[in-house]
Design goal:
89 residues, mainly alpha, three-stranded antiparallel sheet, 4 helices, 3 strands
Length: 89
Amino acid sequence: MIPMGSRSNDPTPRLLSREQAARYCGVCAATFTLQVVPHVYAVRIGAKLLWDVRALDQWIDTLTGGVAVPSQTDWLARLDGDDRANKRR
């Protein structure tokens, strides 16, 4: 098996197997199963369970107090709020 990202022309996968997701989070597969799986839902494609890198990032951000990337809806709401604030001036 070729390790993730070992070929320069291979895209970085968005969905990861349990083992890949555990490595991504910096833990062993057993710890991933106990500590992460209850909080981050897997995507089922056929018989495979895969974890979305973005969902893992969001979960990690909640643990570390990191800044989560706002959704399009969040950005639009912020812009709408800014427009209303500017009209009051």
